[in-house]
Amino acid sequence: MKNLARTARWLLTLAWQADRARLLKAIVLLTLGYLATPGIALALGAFTDNLLDGRLGATFVIGVLIALVLVAELMMGHFAHLYYYEVGELAESRINSELIRYVNGTPGVEHLDNAKFADTVTLVREEIQKARAYIEALLQVVLLGGQLILTTVILASLEPWLLLLPLGALPPVIMGRYAQRSIDRSRDAAVEQNRLARHLLHVATSSSSAKEARILGAEAALKRRHERSWREATAKLWRGQLAGAALRALGQVTFAAAVCATVYLVLLQAVRGLVTVGDVVLVITLAVQVNAQVAAALSVLSTLHAAGHTLRRLDSLKTWPTREPRTPAAVRPVPARLRHGIRLEAVSFSYPGSDRPVLREVDLDLPAGRTVALVGENGAGKSTLVKLLCGLYEPTAGRILVDGVDLREMPPEEWRSAISTLFQDFARLEFTLRENVGVGDLARMGNDDVLTDVLGRAGAEPIVRRVPGGLDGALGHGYTDGAELSGGQWQTLGLARSALRDQPLMLVLDEPAAALDAAAEHATFEQYAGSAGEVGSNGGVTLFVSHRFSTVRMADRIVVLEGGRVAEIGDHAELLASRGLYADLFELQARSYS
Ligand SMILES: Nc1ncnc2c1ncn2[C@@H]1O[C@H](COP(=O)(O)OP(=O)(O)OP(=O)(O)O)[C@@H](O)[C@H]1O
């Protein structure tokens, strides 16, 4: 009950803040419609008595009135629907904004790596689409309650025992709650298989992965796994739904017994001459209406219970343990330019929920104005180090100093706006070409000259020529039928995006050439060697992660990571001369290309 009241308060506040005028109009129209229902029962009773007494004129007037009220009741419902539909749409947009804030409004990204957080976001994203139904259910439950009270008063005025009829409606309500719990439990239990099934469907049908699956001959296996996950998910849902239906049926049977007792009682009164035939018609009509009202109340109550789940899920996202926000006393500004550089002191790191250190006591200098390459075998911890430097995660131990100031003391959003990045798993932003690149520096999104310049520097002219509509042409099929690009072309746009921010303190390129062909790779690194100089004028550091030694060798400083530790540091010549891991990896690659 407490949960229900809290859900009702949440929905009412949401609807009120979304559009109070439309909400009030919906309430007035719905109230008129709901009053009409017991009104029709009363009119039917009077209609019967007048007819039996031979008062044809009065009977005709009441008959016409009943017809008009029935039409009006329908019309009220239609117009009310229009109003609360709009309120629901606006409320959905408010919850969407809230969800975006919970996912993005934290200093770090630790929560995004948590499977439970991801599951909760998926569920809330689906449930938000029912915001209109939730608000409609709230209005209906209040008005159905009013209708039930009115009906009870009319019944009790004829026979006090009939006061008990609405009590017969309690078992279905209670059973309905248990039924909903069983259904919710099955939904929670099936969420993982559902997610897997959706993912497998995506892999099997999206053009990029479907091609690879076809060549690997994996489509049958994908289909089988998809079917299995889907079957497992639906089996769990089916069991929950079946138990729910059985519980609901039990409640309804109890109520049916109460209706039978009601009809018996009123017939007894009629035989004794205490009530008229019209009263019998009235009671039977009201009893049937109570049945419909209880069924409706049950259905809207289960919708409200579902809304309660959405609210609790939103609460859990809102209160998800994330990094503590900075206390003002500890805040230090991000410098306008780097004088000395970025220094890592005994930095260790384990991902949240894991004891396994991915980085161990890393000591490292990234001197101002220099180009630093990070190399190492798969899983050595290169991308993790990059994420720490970007402030997306905090070291578990040790510290990162920017010109001697601990990165933890700098406002994360200020640091993020001072750096420029292109991650290994770069975003394929399926918007217009202008938006895809312009999001790198929102203030310059409207500047065609700047955009054209960075696109040129990233070697993206062929893409601009390919996209119908140029800068304002759409990319991908995310929301419209835009130009489809290759993996390398998407990455080239990512490069242009990362080059848009003017004079960053740190330019991070995590395998920026992974999807590029050899010529494009060469051009890119020539370009970025140049842009590193440019960044350097601001004292900025260019840090790139790469497996390609032909490009790594261009860096001023090369850092070799091995098992989360710094194994070697030096320039290309020094590292070759020291004949360590770098030299081994370099020679291995040189041999495989010769
Ligand atoms: N979000 C995460 N949660 C838990 N463990 C992670 C996460 N991301 C990476 N790891 C683990 O951390 C280790 C280092 O991963 P990282 O991506 O930093 O390596 P890398 O050197 O960049 O590898 P690659 O060259 O393949 O990109 C790996 O063992 C990986 O499984």
TrEMBL record:
InterPro entries: AAA+_ATPase, ABC1_TM_dom, ABC1_TM_sf, ABC_transporter-like_ATP-bd, P-loop_NTPase, Type_1_exporter
Domain ABC transporter: 342-588
Sorted UniProt keywords: ATP-binding, Membrane, Nucleotide-binding, Transmembrane, Transmembrane helix
Residue ranges of the TM segments: 26-48, 60-84, 133-155, 245-268, 280-304
Domain ABC transmembrane type-1, chain residue ranges per copy: 26-306
Protein name in UniProt: ATP-binding cassette subfamily B protein
Domain of life from the UniProt record: Bacteria
Compartments where located: Cell membrane
An example Gene Ontology molecular-function term: ATP binding
Membrane topology annotation: Multi-pass membrane protein
One Pfam family it belongs to: ABC_tran
SMART domains recorded: AAA
